[in-house]
Design the sequence.
């Protein structure tokens, strides 16, 4: 069989999983598969660890590893931002002026932080949705001597739906240990069925959040739309509430990466995202293009979280292998388990992801439950991310 070329765009969770899975499988089956990954950063990051940077002062080097080390798995890595994607001509160009053709294209370029979607949101507050901002938030938290803390999620969906609850309870426990008096309020969108974000994943996970929110007196307000943030008056204004703050921690609204903000890729029903179809994450028109990044989860019924990106990247890789030479059976996104913090403890949660043939979409959010709650899960979470990073660390290894 002639060699096939797979081009992977983005060196984050989706790009890492898809490229290494394809190379591992090619080795196993003895097939010739060129895999090239084009990304705009020298680093592979584990973004969930930016919470540890902000709260615990974890060093940035503990959250990242050199993306070029994917070459140890046979992946060719090019660090040069993608400028344009022409799926009709199977051509990708970079800002550095390079051009790449492909037999299969896998896109996982994450989402951008679209602060400008709301008045005042760019100027106000701090966050940990990129590494440098996580360091700034750490400084602010270390010098925080008490007052009103608002954790604001402007709209659904956002990266990691449980994040505001995780952050609020972790901070509450930390402040309580430090003897800092803080009045913490999570201001997050009301779900379409009227539920709060704490209730969104079903009764088992809801009970866990409620126990810790009550224990630490963290308030949770469901808003019906963010109107603006006023950085001068330090107030968050939503359609149904107003919240004064001394410290604002904000969650970014998701935006489409530039190369996907084109008619070929923009999802008409919700232009914040790029189109993809369930169950295999292919582009609806271009069968050789797979979209497995945060930018394309909502059109398939999934949402913006690394656990979904992980399973989506494997489904896409298997679909490519099946397409090439029947090397893999068609696959579906699998149930996901995630490890999370809550206050000074931790928990494991599982969501039973299923593909609904009647709607052609994945379903999952009413099928989630807690599988374990223990302070040990804090170590499991750290160990889980350390494992991903260690695969890309070869210090002193030839
Ligand atoms: C603070 C925080 C906490 C989180 N917590 C959790 C959690 O507990 N559990 C969970 O499951 N998920 C969590 N997530 C979400 C998870 O990190 C993302 O869902 C996942 O990383 C998305 O994978 P991706 O491949 O789409 O994008 P990313 O991992 O964001 O990677 C995108 C890649 O594309 C590259 N790129 C972007 N633009 C270009 C361009 N023009 N050209 C070339 N390359 C480009 C970037 O450099 C990057 O390498 C969290 C995220 C954050 C920020």
Sequence:
């Amino acid at each position: 069989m002639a060699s096939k070329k797979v081009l992977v765009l983005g060196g984050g969770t989706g790009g890492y999983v898809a490229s290494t899975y394809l190379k591992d499988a090619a080795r196993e089956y003895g097939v010739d598969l060129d895999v090239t990954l084009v990304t705009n950063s020298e680093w592979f990051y584990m973004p969930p660890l930016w919470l540890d940077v902000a709260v615990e002062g974890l060093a940035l080097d503990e959250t990242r590893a050199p993306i070029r080390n994917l070459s140890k798995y046979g992946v060719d890595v090019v660090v040069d931002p993608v400028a344009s994607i022409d799926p009709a001509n199977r051509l990708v160009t970079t800002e550095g002026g390079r051009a790449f053709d492909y037999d299969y294209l896998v896109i996982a370029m994450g989402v951008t932080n679209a602060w400008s979607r709301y008045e005042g949101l760019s100027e106000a507050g701090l966050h940990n949705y990129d590494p440098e901002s996580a360091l700034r938030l750490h400084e602010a938290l270390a010098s925080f001597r008490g007052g009103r803390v608002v954790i604001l999620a402007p709209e659904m969906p956002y990266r990691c739906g449980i994040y505001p609850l995780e952050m609020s309870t972790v901070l509450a426990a930390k402040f309580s240990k430090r003897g800092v008096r803080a009045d913490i309020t999570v201001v997050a969108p009301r779900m379409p069925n009227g539920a709060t974000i704490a209730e969104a994943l079903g009764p088992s996970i809801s009970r866990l959040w409620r126990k810790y929110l009550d224990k630490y007196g963290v308030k949770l307000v469901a808003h019906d739309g963010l109107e603006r943030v006023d950085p001068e008056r330090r107030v968050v204004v939503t359609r149904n509430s107003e919240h004064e703050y001394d410290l604002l921690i904000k969650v970014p609204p998701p935006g489409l990466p530039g190369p996907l903000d084109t008619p070929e890729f923009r999802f008409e029903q919700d232009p914040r995202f790029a189109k993809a179809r369930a169950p295999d994450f292919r582009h609806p028109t271009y069968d050789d293009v797979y979209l497995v990044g945060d930018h394309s989860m909502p059109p398939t019924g999934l949402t913006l979280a690394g656990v979904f990106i992980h399973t989506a990247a494997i489904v896409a890789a298997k679909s490519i292998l099946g397409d090439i030479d029947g090397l893999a059976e068609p696959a579906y996104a699998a149930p996901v388990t995630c490890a999370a913090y809550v206050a000074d403890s931790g928990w494991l949660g599982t969501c039973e992801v299923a593909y609904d043939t009647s709607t052609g979409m994945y379903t999952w959010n009413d099928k989630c439950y807690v599988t374990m709650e223990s302070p040990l899960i804090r170590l499991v979470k750290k160990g889980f991310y350390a494992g991903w990073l260690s695969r890309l660390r070869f210090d002193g290894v030839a």
